[in-house]
Amino acid sequence: MNRLARMWDSDIAWSFRNTPVAIVAAIIALIIVLGAVFAPWIAPYDPFNSASLNLMDGFTPPGEPNQFTGNTYLMGTDNQGRDIFSTILYGARISLFVGFSAVVFALVLGIGLGLLAGWRGGWVDSLIMRIADVQLSFPSILIALLIFGVARGFIPPSMREEVAIWVLIVSIGLSDWVQYARVVRGAAMVEKSKEYVQAARVIGVHPARIVLRHILPNVMGPVLVIATIGLALAIIAEATLSFLGVGVPPTQPSLGTLIRIGQQYLFSGEWWILLFPAIALLLLALSVNLLGDWLRDALNPRLR
C-alpha cells in the first residue's frame, strides 16, 4: 500500500491526473487494447471461422436487417458476410501484437548497439553510426519493404503464411532501431565520463556490469518516450504494409488488411467496410501518440 501511495503522489502520476488529453488518450487506448485482448469473449461472431459465415449476409449496412437473412449487424458486414465489429476486434489483436513485438525488437537491438557504440567509441562507434546514417537516408517504410521482400525470398512458399507475421515484426524492427541507438549512444557517452562511472572503473568493476547496472538505467527515460511514440509508428507501418498487400496473410487480417479490403468497395457504396477499421486504426495510433507526447513532457525536468 505504501508503494502504491508513493506512486500516486509521484510527479508522473500528478502530471497524468492534471492532463485531460492524456487521460482521454489512455482511456481510448485501454478500451481498444482490452477489446483486442478479450476479442474471443467480446466479439459476437468469429470472423475467421468459415463454417459460421454466410455469404448471403455480405454487404449488410450497419444497423439494417439483411434483405435475405434478416440478420442485423452493428457495423455491417464485408463482402464475405463477416461482422465488421468482430473483425476490428480480432484485427486489432494482430496490429497490437505486431506493433509491440516490433518495438521490443527495435528497442533491444537499438539499446544494445547504442550502448556498445557509446561505451567502446573508436572504430566500433564509427561503424555503427555510419550504418545508422545510411539507414536514416531512406524512409523506414521502404527499408521494411526491402527487408520483408528479401526475407520472403529465402522462405519456402509453403511456410510463408506461417512466418509472415514474424517476418513483418523483424522488418519493422530493423527499420526502427536507429533512433534508439542514437539516443542511447549520446546518453552513454555523457554518463561514462561522470565520476560514479570513473570510480566504478577504478575499483575494478567489470565493464558489462557498469554498462548494465549504472549507465543503462540512466538512459531509459528518453528511450521509453521514443518507444511509446514508436509503438504508434509501428502500428501504422504494419497497417501500411498490410494495405500494400505485403503484410499479414489474408487468413489473419489486421486493421491494415481490413482497410485494404474496404478500399476496394468504397466507390460502390459499401463505405462502412473501410470507415470503421480506419476509425479504429486512427483512434489507436492517435491515443498512443498523445500518450507519448505526454510522457515526453512529464519526464522533461525543464517543464516541471
From TrEMBL:
Keyword Lipid metabolism: no
Ranges in coiled-coil conformation: none
Keyword Nucleotide-binding: no
Gene3D superfamilies per UniProt: MetI-like (1.10.3720.10)
Pfam (any one): OppC_N
GO cellular component annotations of the record: plasma membrane
Membrane-topology annotation of the record: Multi-pass membrane protein
Domain ABC transmembrane type-1: residue ranges: 92-292
Subcellular location: Cell membrane
InterPro entries associated with the record: BP-dependent_transpt_permease, MetI-like, MetI-like_sf, OppC_N
GO BP term (any one): transmembrane transport
Keywords: Cell membrane, Membrane, Transmembrane, Transmembrane helix, Transport
Location (main, coarse): membrane
Spans traversing the lipid bilayer: 21-43, 94-119, 131-151, 163-184, 223-246, 271-295
Annotated family: Belongs to the binding-protein-dependent transport system permease family.
Protein name, per record: Peptide/nickel transport system permease protein
Species the sequence originates in: Yoonia rosea
